[in-house]
């Protein structure tokens, strides 16, 4: 908290500003400028009385090249197929790093990468699109089926069946009599696997019949509640000794997800919300359950009926193959 | 895009890592370290092959004090009651600012501030809570009524009725014959009012009978659609010449909102998603409309029936007055 009582006695405000009066505007500016350096740090707030935004990361080619040259102390976190994760440090020319300093960079290396990866990560314009139930059933659902049958989920099935990446499986919950409720906990790509305030896990269900939230129906409400309870409990069992409680965890799912096999994101509520939690992309699991319960119709009614609105990059397959042709009238809804 | 073909011939990967074998792990690390400085900048991606996270803002008292001493060129953006907004620059000791440089800081000053403001902005633990329909009707709805009747919305009514802050009103849409569809567009507190990629407006409806999304019912579907259309159109009319199109805008509402008078957030989809767009807090307007449509029951059925799950800081009134006593069994649900 910043205490300004030294600079301004309580009850007096900044001089009145009359925007039509240049003199008083100048006076006011002088008053504020004089006030700020006199703020006395009393205790630290999250960010508010003084909101400070950092400059963007370097983007000029020569600055980026310089930046890359000073990355060092790379530590491997793990790998899966073409995806490799590292912690690293960046040394600016003027400072030397004391041994044992915490890493200040996280690197995600995709090697070898394809044109599709490059498109996904390229700076690109984003369009909001409306995926109606009609567009879903006619265009999106077949697209998802093609994705699923093309072998792109094999790496996921390999993990579920214990054939690969077992060193990354944090927990496997499986009862033979309740195969439907089996799931695995893995660290999310974006978690450094250490910082508990940034905890980010994925709960991957064993059942294979749910490609995305579009497949969730009223009949899944009990199953979803059970999964929610089990995932929360498992996470608390694992990280309770590091301060994690059930009401300190946020559960959500993505639409569209990165891969079409149902999985739940589990994050520490203290984690700063970024694009992974953005409205339009992320749906709170418990809000989804409540929404399903209140839907009209029978047990097979569900999210296939919704209109979902979300942003798509111009380089994404969904934009190029479906929504761009729809917008241009080259494809019928 | 970062091209690594100089460092690694296509088709060859990093050496296999056997985590049990220290030597090969060291070899692998050396390989990666050698690789990174040789990355050649080809074109810039959004962030992915190399995810770089900045260090946090200063929090040590002496560093913060130093930081504050170097804030200058403060420019007033506007004010409303106790809230004042400024753009400013920060001069580190080693650099001099060339005239006309863009501002690199935005300051929100609350003066004079109350204990409630201090609580709101204090670093605090967050709890996920489940607001059931029962908790809503028994505890939250009366809380909202008290907030609304305590005069805390007077500043909002003053704006709507044209008595104050008119210089901030970007647009007023009002047809006498359709009073229900009237709304005002204002800049959000977090927008610098210049950067079009960060465009963030608030559409404040003129009608006063909707305190929050909890009051939205099936009978409001047509009205919501009309508002959505009008708000999008108005924003494109205003900013179309700066590149804004309808499908470049994201509309959402907050629950809980900062004040209990229905308003819609309008942001550029290019704006990096932060806590204002976080799942649990932000609800896409069009998804809400679709959800209402598919709800069972008659026209007065609506979001009062939902269970809503969201995070609350320990210093918030809702936590201290309602959810903490509920958790401790001192209040009945």
Give a brief description:
2 copies of one chain form a homodimer. The first copy, chain A, is an alpha+beta fold and 333 residues long.
What number is the mean pLDDT of chain A?
80
Low-confidence stretches of chain A: 1-20, 45-57, 92-102
Q: Report the strand count of chain A.
A: 13
Shape of chain A: globular
Helix/sheet category of chain A:
alpha+beta
**Strands in their spatial order, largest beta sheet of chain A:** 7-8-9-11-10-12
The protein's oligomeric status is homodimer
* Proportion of residues in β-strands of chain A: 15-25%
Report the span from N to C terminus of chain A: 54 Å
The radius of gyration computed from the alpha-carbon positions of chain A, rounded to a whole number of angstroms, is: 25 Å
Helix content of chain A: 25-40%
Greatest contact between two chains:
A-B, 114 and 113 residues
Largest sheet of chain A: 6 strands, antiparallel
Order of helices and strands of chain A: EHEHEEEHEHHEEEHEEEHEH
The number of helical segments of chain A is 8
